[in-house]
Each structure stands twice: as C-alpha cells, then as structure tokens.
Design a protein that fits this description.
Layout: H1 4-9, E1 17-20, E2 25-29, E3 35-43, E4 46-55, H2 60-75, H3 80-96, H4 99-110, H5 116-134, H6 144-155, H7 160-179, H8 212-220, H9 222-225, H10 230-242, H11 246-250, E5 257-258, E6 263-266, E7 277-280, H12 283-296, H13 316-323, H14 334-345, H15 350-357, H16 364-368, H17 375-393
Antiparallel strand pairs: 1-2, 2-3, 3-4, 5-6, 6-7
Length: 406
C-alpha cells in the first residue's frame, strides 16, 4: 500500500512509471513530474482504466474514496467511466442552460436592436446584481423566492428603481428561454407586489420660457466670459438649436453633415429608436457647425474628447450648465422639453414636433399610417425656432402663433 510520503517522494524518470496501491489503484508518475491517480477495473469482460485525479490536488485518501465508489458501481453493473462521461455531459448541459449563459446569449441577440450604451448598462446590471447570485443556476430551476432574494439585496442598497429594472430584464431573459425551450415559464411575474413600489418619477430639469433668455445669453459668452471651452459653448448652442439628445450630439461625426443641403443625418445605430434621423439645420446651426469646422475639422469627431480618438465626455454639457449656475434647474436633455413645450404653444403641428424629437409613436395603428418625414415642415419649423431663440436673447417679446403653421 502507498503512503503519502511515498507519493511525495516519487521522482520523475525518463519514462512513465507506476506506484501501486491496492484494489487496482495506482499512481502514475510522468517524465515531467506530473502524478496521476488511475484505477484499473474490468467490466463486461474488458479491462479499462479510470482517471481519479491529479496528485497532490487529490490526496491519497480522496483517491481511495473515489476508487471505492467506482468499484461499487462496477459491482452494480455500472461502468464508472461511462457514468463519469454522462455526469460531464449533464454538467455541460446545465452550464449551457445556466441563467448567465442564456442571459448573455439574449444580450447578444438584442445587441443590434439597442444603442451601445443601453446594451452596456444592461450587461453591467446583470454582472453587478444577478450573475453573482444566480448566474450558475440552471434557468429552469430558478423560482420566484430565489429572484425575490436577488431583488431584496438590490433594494437594501436603496436602489428601488434598479431592482425593478433588473427584474424586468430578468423577465425578458426567462421569456427568451421559454421560447427557446430551456424553461417552462417566467417566474418574474410572481413577484408582482413583492418588490417595493417604484419611487415617484423624476422629470428632467428644464427651464421655463421666462428663464430661457438669460441662459441663452450666458451660453453665448461661456468661452469668453466664464472660462469655458469654445467647443463646449458650441455644443450648448447646438443643443438649443437642434434639441437632439446629448449622446446624439457629442458622438456626431463630420461625415454625417451635409452643410450644402443644410442637413444632419444621424444613422440608425446612434439613435435611441434605432431609426435614421434627419435634422434640418437652420442658418444659425449652420453657422455654429462652420465655426466648429474651423477648430475641429481635422478630427473625425465634431466634438473630440481630451483624447481626440474618443468623443467628448457625456457630462461635458451638464457640467457646463452647472458652471453657469443651473445645477438642478437645467440639463442637456432639458432643451428637448423646452423646445417641445414652446413649439406646441407656437402652434406647430404635434406630429411635426414629435418627428423632429425622434420620438416613437406609442399608438401602433397611428404609427403605421404616419411614416412621413415632414421634412419641408420641419425645415420651416427649425428656422423659426432658431429665429425665436435669437429674438429671446435680444429681449424681444415673441407672440405664440397659436395656429398650425407647419
């Protein structure tokens, strides 16, 4: 019989050799110094060998336990080698059908439908909150109490809204698994009422019309009088003139612009709704873009970041508003709310405004019959909007049109 000392002291030789224990088990020492536990057994009249592990990761005592288990299987008519392969196969299937494996498969499936930012944030939420808790569990075995424990941990951090978002995306993964035949139902629905209610929604900060002129004047002097960067000043001016989303602006590239046609064509992959969007450019917006061309024309980004290979930081516009004294009063997204409110008051057609905002049509029937781009109407509206902003900066009183002129 072997001893632990004998196993430790076994030195490699030019060729593999064996140190026998008992009942068919032996330690095989390889020329490179590796040591493998083996079991020789017979079943169905054939001699076979079974790997029991690597020494010293598997100790002498552990190897004997594995040997005894295998010998019991042989006595019962089961081939331990076949049983081992079957266990590996089942484990592989379980791993392939784990929540994490299916969630990552679903994330890849959704990648082309989402913005890069949304895909990244969704994946990060899974990696932060879900995979450490239930990632290895077979998806078919996950039930509502298990999911509730995940939600409770998120709630304990004070992030109730995140708990709801995480469970909603988990539900999409379960439904994907149901559709692909890897589980029978989505247990997220059973959590209804068990998760703390969502907090009241916080709306994006946006100024009222009467406070707009002072902001516009401050924006025009951001670089000259307030120590800000010139390209940030131009970014703020374009947010006001075009009311695109901040991400759509800061990641813009020069090849999206046609200054001769006075158009900015944003490709579908950069839009929230994954549809291409045309922004008609007013004369004022064209002037800003031409000024930007003078300082940033050598780069591919219209708004390059500190490292020109990347776009401007997503918080640049927001921090500029803070610097001007508008913390808690205005955000980059707030220009969209301001424009929507005032243009509606000016009497422009709601469909034209919504199309310029690149909002999705919530009513599917209405959307099916409203696929026009309204480009002529939007060109007129965007120029009148730019003229309106100029008049407000100058201190003029602008009287809303109160009738559709789009």
């Amino acid at each position: 019989m072997l001893t632990a000392t004998a196993c430790n002291n076994a030195k490699p030789k030019e060729k593999p050799y064996k140190l026998s224990d008992e009942k068919g088990m032996y330690l095989e020492i390889m020329p490179n110094g590796s040591k493998y536990w083996r079991l020789k057994y017979r079943i169905g009249g054939k001699e076979k060998r079974l790997a029991l592990g690597v020494y010293p990761e598997v100790s002498l005592a552990e190897a004997r336990d594995k040997r005894d288990t295998a010998r019991k299987q042989v006595s019962e008519g089961t081939d331990p080698g076949v049983a081992k392969q079957e266990a590996k196969r089942i484990a592989k299937i379980a791993t392939a059908n784990s929540f994490e494996a299916i969630a990552r498969e679903w994330l890849d499936h959704m990648k082309h439908k989402w913005s890069e930012g949304h895909h990244t944030y969704t994946k990060r939420r899974f990696e932060a909150y879900v995979f450490p808790e239930i990632g290895n569990a077979p998806i078919a075995q996950i039930n509502a109490p298990t999911l509730l424990s995940v939600a409770r941990k998120i709630e304990s951090k004070g992030t109730i809204e995140t708990a709801h978002k995480v469970m909603n995306t988990c539900g999409q993964v379960f439904r994907y698994a149901v559709a692909s035949g890897r589980c029978e139902r989505d247990p997220v629905g059973d959590l209804k009422g068990a998760i703390k209610p969502r907090p009241a929604p916080k709306h994006m900060n946006a100024l009222s019309e009467k406070d707009l002129p002072a902001l516009l004047r401050k924006m025009d002097t951001y670089a000259t009088e307030q120590g800000g960067e010139l390209q940030t000043q131009y970014a703020l001016q374009l947010l006001a003139l075009t009311f695109v989303r901040t991400g759509e602006l800061r990641e813009a590239t020069w090849d999206e612009l046609d200054l001769d046609k006075a158009e900015w064509r944003i490709p579908a992959e950069r839009m929230k709704m994954k549809a291409p969007h045309v922004v008609p450019l007013s004369q004022q917006a064209l002037d800003v873009f031409r000024s930007l061309k003078e300082i940033n024309g050598a780069y591919s980004w219209i708004f390059p970041g500190v490292r020109p290979s990347a776009a401007m930081s997503k918080n640049t516009a927001l921090f500029a508003l803070y610097r001007m004294g508008y913390r808690g009063r205005m955000t980059g997204h707030g220009f969209r709310a301001v424009a929507s409110t005032i243009l509606n008051e000016m009497g422009f057609d709601a469909d034209v405004i919504e199309r310029q905002l690149a909002h999705s049509e919530r009513n599917k029937v209405r959307a099916a019959y409203h696929r026009t781009e309204y480009l002529p109407e939007r060109r007129k509206m965007m120029q009148e909007w730019a003229d309106y902003l100029d008049s407000k900066k100058a201190g003029a009183e602008v009287i809303p049109l109160r009738s559709s002129n789009a």
